[in-house]
Amino acid sequence: MALLIYSKNHPVADWGAAIAKLAPDLDIRLYPEIGDPADIDVALVWKPPPGLLQSLPNLKLIQSFGAGVDGILADPNVPRHVPLARVVDGRLTVGMSEYVLLHVLRYHRQMETMLQNQRNRTWRWLPPVDASERIIGIMGMGTLGTDAAKKLLPFGFQVIGWSRSLKAVDGVTSFHGDEHLDGFLKLCNVLVCLLPLTPQTRGIINRRTLSLLPRGAYLINAGRGGHVVEADLLHALDSDWLSGATLDVFNEEPLPPESPFWTHPKVTVTPHNAADSIPAHVAPQIVDNIRRLQKGQPILRLVDYERGY
Ligand code: NDP
Ligand code: OXD
After folding, report:
1. Which of 272, 291, 292, 307 is catalytic?
2. Is 227 a catalytic residue?
3. Mind listing the domains of the chain with CATH numbers?
4. Which end of the chain is more exposed for a tag (fewer CB within 10 A), N or C?
């Protein structure tokens, strides 16, 4: 069984080593050393060059390096008859919840103002706001959004979620479907985007939807850059409608040096590492799927090509 590994973002040699340790029998090939394309049974990829997957005639499984698969589905010629699996990993999920908590708490505790005051040697007491007065809205109540929502609750925040289907998460008010999006947004003091990027969600954070947020709200986007219409976000920040934004993902990555986000006083930029796939943690589930393929058992963590996630 031959496994091709391709990614510009991940240390592919480390991934190859982690997988080889668990499955020494695998014939592992690191792109561009493909050898005969007809040999390749499984492709472990992140944003593969368009046409690469289609050029592998005997491909039986596409495995994403990450939780998101938009970078794979961006290739119009991805062979959609081949099962596509994604990563669902406890450590990655915890990492994302850490990121969400960090930035929600930072906004809740008015840290930006405190830091600014410190720089100005200003000793100014700020009236505390009780967490119960803040409504945190999570767009995308899947693996990551649900965990983050549950971890926000013990702090006393009001937590609401929006997804395609109705959810029953104790303590979290569920909104679902396009018809309930506006009602959800009108409540969010902090909007956290943990959606997958699909044709339905592209550009969902735009001038109209941002204008529905209460004045002074914050945005935390760790979904994908394509969720945000960047010019509309800048307008919402500059017109003082939004108090701040934390952005981990961008339309263009790495974020180009000329991007206004780098220096915007209300923006925190992180380099798409809110939550990462770590070889030692994730290699076992990849090897498990390969073993399942070999034994003709169901592949786990499958993506629905129709839904796009
Ligand atoms: P899941 O597939 O588990 O969850 C996706 C959620 O989004 C589901 O609740 C789904 O609704 C909802 N959703 C999808 N489409 C729509 C829509 N059109 N309208 C309303 N809700 C919708 O994904 P994960 O939680 O595992 O990951 C989410 C995303 O996070 C990834 O796709 C990736 O883009 C991003 N990510 C970012 C990382 C980073 O470091 N910045 C790291 C890992 C992931 P329903 O439940 O009803 O189907
Ligand atoms: C992912 C990511 O989707 O890293 O896992 O963004």
Report:
1. 272
2. no
3. 2-89+277-295 (3.40.50.720), 93-269 (3.40.50.720)
4. N
119 part of the active site: no
* Closest residue by CA, ligand 2 atom 2: 66
Q: What does the DSSP assignment read for 18-80? A: HHHHH-TTSEEEETT---SGGGEEEEEESSPPTTTGGG-TT--EEEESSS--HHHHTSTT--T
CA distance 167 to 174: 6
Interatomic CA distance for residues 181 and 138, integer angstroms: 11
- Pocket lining for ligand 1, CB < 6 angstroms: 66-68, 96, 140-145, 163-165, 194-198, 200-201, 222-224, 248-249, 272-275, 309
Contact 141, 149 (CB under 8 A): yes
pTM over 0.85: yes
Distance between CA 278 and CA 271 in Å, rounded?
16
Per-residue pLDDT of the chain (309 residues; tens, 9 = 90+): 999 999 999 999 999 999 999 999 999 999 999 999 999 999 999 999 999 999 999 999 999 999 999 999 999 999 999 999 999 999 999 999 999 999 999 999 999 999 999 999 999 999 999 999 999 999 999 999 999 999 999 999 999 999 999 999 999 999 999 999 999 999 999 999 999 999 999 999 999 999 999 999 999 999 999 999 999 999 999 999 999 999 999 999 999 999 999 999 999 999 999 999 999 999 999 999 999 999 999 999 999 999 999
